Amino acid sequence: MIDLDTYVQLLGLVQNSIIAGAVLGLVGGLVGVFVMQRDMAFAVHGISELSFAGAAGALLLGVNVVAGSLVGSLIAAILIGLLGARARDRNSIIGVLMPAGLGLGILFLALYPGRSANKFSLLTGQIIAVDSPQLAWLVGISLVVLVALLLIWRPLTFDSLDPDVAAARGVPSRFVALAFMVLLGLIVAVSVQIIGALLVMALLVTPAAAALRVSASPVLVPMLASVFGLFSAVAGILLAIAGSLPISPYITTISFAIYVVCRLVGRASRRRLRAAV
Amino acid sequence: MDDEQREGGDVLRLENASLGFGERTLWSGLDLSVKRGEFIAVLGPNGSGKTSLLKTVLGQQALDSGRALLGGAPVRSGDRRIGYIPQQKLVPPGTPLRARDLVALGVNGHRFGLPLPRRGERERVEELLADVGATSYADRPVGSLSGGEQQRLRVGQALADDPVLLLCDEPLLSLDLAHQRGVSELIDRRRREHDTAVLFVTHDINPVLDKVDRILYLAGGRFREGTPDEVLRGEVLSELYGSPVDVFRSHGRVVVVGVPDAQTHAHHTHHPPDERPGAHA
Ligand SMILES: Nc1ncnc2c1ncn2[C@@H]1O[C@H](COP(=O)(O)OP(=O)(O)OP(=O)(O)O)[C@@H](O)[C@H]1O
Ligand SMILES: [Mg+2]
């Protein structure tokens, strides 16, 4: 443990990292609502492994790691979107892509001569230094995802609920589905940089899953999911500064704890509802 | 649609339409014209191409030959003059939508942009909810509603912008008798009051027998079209199925006996596995 003065000093150094975490948590929670409705949790995991491969490749080549991560993410997301319209096809494609991506990433890391801490952070996350130019990228991409998601919100909701009827009512299903995959790819690439490829689901799945346990309102669920995501990310970073562990165990533990509490609350309120009827 | 079309032409026309998959012909040489306010039941065993027929009208399935015209122009995908109630799928419990949101998707679900309601939309949704008798459960989560309640909402969603043609794919499946009557009367009232044409796919003609104008019966790659009295006859169905079939009428109900085994009117195919167990009991 460290004393308060040092902590406050550190806080000043990582404040941008906290901002990035907050934005990611918020946007990740919103994206997660659709990940759940479209049954894409497995796809999130698959995309993150390819994103990891892209980042590791970039590290090896000495080019921008965020760019590498983005390339990997987008390739995976678009492949899954194009080839895996139906759930079963999708799962088999992801099942094939995931080990390929992880294997490739590990190969790149093994070949990379640099510091090993750098390598590890792609898998388990890192707190990014204040002056890092990456930070602007991460926040910028998250905001783009946020705006685009809001713009396609309604057609995407319709398509997630019932693609046949949505198409019959004039929703361009294929475009909407692919657009969502691209947004998912973008936000996964950001998550990989902050929380690490292995634990992306803690911000893209868990907060939305938790929110869905306690509400069925189309307004409350996205709001809760983004608050849960934001809280997990920010609190995780604040705790990580004080300790010597990587950032991700803190974030995953907090988001998991929120999920457990939501389950209990959801069960209790359902029981109350039944008793009242 | 302008007034000229409204008076003269048919809402829907199929001209010499044929569709098949691989070796198999679902139907061929199909001619059908549907006028405003007409209620047409589409009957036939599983796999006879009823859903495919609706997909064709929706512009989601191309014909092998022939033409499909809506208001005189070739059908196209995403035409909002058509209301569509799909072969029943239950909304999974836990879906973050309330009853009113499901109906609202019919009003503005296709629109891009910030998801804020425009003026008048809330009132429109309220009106639709009242039309289909769903006001009392408007704020309940859709996933927690019964099949019949969900079906009323789908009707409300499909009626959102006063369609000229309503396509219903087995809207009565898995509903009890009271709900069957409720939903079919809802649709019947709609076409009487607003002149909406209805294409109504069903396994069981009885709940709508007193409402239908004509029947399109698909079976074994062939079809017959006409009034219930013309089509629901032993010799007609025997010819269609290529084996002896009897039709009995009693107390205003029709019972078809002797439909070949491979083409029974059972309900348990084509349903996604994620439906609630027991929903088809
Ligand atoms: N896109 C497609 N590709 C290949 N075959 C198809 C396709 N769509 C439908 N079929 C086949 O066409 C046949 C008719 O299907 P359709 O869904 O129209 O039947 P249906 O009359 O609605 O049956 P049910 O009563 O079971 O709903 C089925 O054998 C089906 O497998
Ligand atoms: Mg069908």
From TrEMBL, chain A:
Main location: membrane
GO BP terms in the entry: transmembrane transport
InterPro entries given in the database record: ABC_BtuC-like (IPR037294), ABC_TroCD (IPR001626)
Coiled coil listed as a keyword: no
Protein name: Metal ABC transporter permease
Pfam family membership, one: ABC-3
PANTHER family referenced in this protein's UniProt entry, alphabetically: ABC-TRANSPORTER METAL-BINDING PROTEIN, METAL TRANSPORT SYSTEM MEMBRANE PROTEIN TM_0125-RELATED
Cellular component GO terms held in the UniProt record: ATP-binding cassette (ABC) transporter complex
Compartments reported by the entry: Cell membrane; Membrane
Family: Belongs to the ABC-3 integral membrane protein family.
Keywords: Membrane, Transmembrane, Transmembrane helix, Transport
Segments traversing the membrane: 12-35, 56-80, 92-114, 135-156, 176-205, 217-241, 247-266
Top-rank taxon, per record: Bacteria
Keyword Transit peptide: no
Membrane topology according to the record: Multi-pass membrane protein
Source organism (scientific name): Labedella populi
